[in-house]
Amino acid sequence: MGTRNRRLTGWRLTAALVLAAIVIFPIYWMFVTSVSTPEELYARDAPLWPVALHPENYTEPLARYPFARWFANSTVIAVVSVVATVVVNLMAGYAFAKLEFPLKNVLFLAIISTLMVPVQVIMVAQFQVVVELDLVNTNWGVILPRLAEAFGLFLSRQFMAAVPDELLEAASLDGAGQLRRFVSVVLPLCKPLVATLVIFTFMWRWNEFAWPLIVLRDNDSYTLPVGLLFLQSQFGNDVGGLMAMSMLATIPMLVVFAVFQRFFVEGMARSGIK
Amino acid sequence: MALLDVRTEPPAQARARPAAPRAVRWREAVAGYAFTAPALAVFGAFMFLPLALTFMISFQEYSGFGRAEWIGARNYTDIVADSTFWRALANTVVLGIFLVPISLFGGLGLAMLLNRAMPARTLLRALFYVPVVISGVSAGLIAKWMFNETLGVVNRVAEAVGLPGPAWQSSGVPAMASVIVVTVWTTIGYNMVVYLAALQGVPGEMHEAARVDGANWWQQVRLITWPMLRPTTFFLVVWGIIGSFQVFDLVYVMTGGGPGNATTLLVTYAYSEGFAQRRQGYAAAIGVVLYVIVMVLTVVQFRLNRRREA
Known about the structure:
The complex is a heterodimer of chains A (274) and B (310).
Chain A: H1 2-34, H2 38-42, H3 56-64, H4 67-98, H5 104-112, H6 119-132, H7 139-146, H8 150-161, H9 165-173, H10 178-186, H11 191-207, H12 210-215, H13 224-235, H14 239-259, H15 261-271
Chain B: H1 22-57, E1 60-61, E2 69-70, H2 74-81, H3 83-114, H4 121-133, H5 136-146, H6 153-160, H7 172-199, H8 204-212, H9 217-228, H10 230-244, H11 249-254, H12 266-276, H13 280-309
Antiparallel strand pairs in B: 1-2
């Protein structure tokens, strides 16, 4: 039984490793391409590993295009979005979970009904709102409309509904007002919720493409994904340079994932709650 | 089942609350609106107002500049007669029909593979999840390069093992197939993680008992694991279908909807009508149609869900 089990684990591990290699191959190939010259890549019998390392694939586009600027724009948008999303959703989540006010259920249902609406449904009208507010080409034009995302609000409300009412009542008997109940009773219990909100909002805003593509018109205002699309049109046959920039745009996300992996997995499982 | 726990909680308002004096209720209502004010402001300005405007614009002809002209339901009658629209809808459905089951069973397979103790399990799980966290644009760029017909690594490997390399980028069916492959790649890790969490809820004793009764591996999967995972599967199917209506970044970058309109999807078509062709009224009308489709799918989800829980 023991050896049979061990052999079975061996087979499972082998299968898992082979599949993982296939799944990771495109990322590996992005890296290989990013350090190769076109001649090396286009050679008839080019191998599946780098022949030589060509850092100029990285340095030349960095010098020629405002990649650093795009990186900064993406970072600012992601960080501000994360902070704003957490604040807006925690506040609203508390009210929808623990307070009574007129129209509460109607408002909550109206918001939840937008959970599945793709941005392409409203992009034309949303763009007009952004034009009216004079936010075209600005970071705020990207950030503000995407705060209206029901996912985080729903998650927050569900999480806070599980906070026992007795805790709040005890605080209220001690004379704590709503703000103090929220800040000193509910918030300290919300760390897993905040972790989930931070990670997912960061991932979505860092990777976001369709909406920034509409709002950001000038080269200098681009985020990384929009900038990459622009580079694709500039590079032509120089896949190496394009993959190098794509690599640089992806690495921060991979680092965040590697560091917060546990929260990603837990958060994903929790988002399955919907 | 752990996945669905939160949903089954009684809503806060259902719990018995002592009747509060009017002044207290009034103060609570003020606090309620104060706490929800930021959310209501952003949802009002950037979701509900645009939804209403979308409906309005869908009855107009508008280029994005200058004056809009009211044209009644003409955008909608144009949609009915627009073969590209129907092609985009058909493509979206085809994508969903292939993507959802492949990604679902693939994710379940991976979850079952990784559910047992093995070395480097956490690392393996993370590796399968990596394609979920990278951007659709990066995924599209790398996929476009890998599926390049003459120089791409996919066809070079195919050639090396003696297979004919399909015309991924100049022929419709292979192009759609390549889009399906890449969307599976970017979603399978998500299904795996959700299934892994659900598998924690399948008690080991059930398998133990089945084994004692002489059930083989396949019987255990079919009679124990699969039924126990039904709520999760249901959630992932609905989520997957709705997700397949939202695939944009990847297709926009990887194929641009081509060749011809072979990979044009509803969302990429709406975008190109609204912002490349500048037929914003028409794009808004497509948006309304898309909204109706997604809403119907969502309502069907909740209906079936309630029936299952009842």
